[in-house]
Design a protein that fits this description.
Layout: H1 2-8, H2 13-33, H3 38-60, H4 67-86
Helix pairs in contact: 1-2, 3-4
């Protein structure tokens, strides 16, 4: 979201982009250090990002959120759940 704001707005948003990436990778590293499998951690991280950005972009940047996009988000969530449940056997 901050990258989009940086591209269309003022350059000070780039600092927030860098901080956001650093914080994201720190939390991903901590999650992996606590034993979560990489496929599950990355799946949750990326699926959450796709879903949240699509919804927030609709309200903040007035971008479209169609029924087809909603179905895609549901499929992504379902896929991540399958990966997570498949890794616990």
């Amino acid at each position: 979201m901050s990258l989009r704001a940086a591209v269309t707005g003022t350059r000070r948003w780039y600092a927030i982009v860098v901080i956001g990436y650093l914080v994201s990778f720190v939390f991903l590293s901590l999650t992996l250090a606590h034993g979560m499998p990489l496929g599950v951690a990355y799946g949750i991280w990326s699926a959450t990002g796709v879903a949240l950005i699509a919804v927030l972009s609709k309200f903040i940047f007035r971008e479209p959120l169609t029924l087809m996009m909603g179905a895609g988000i549901a499929l992504i969530i379902g896929g991540v759940l399958l990966v997570e449940t498949g890794s616990t056997h």
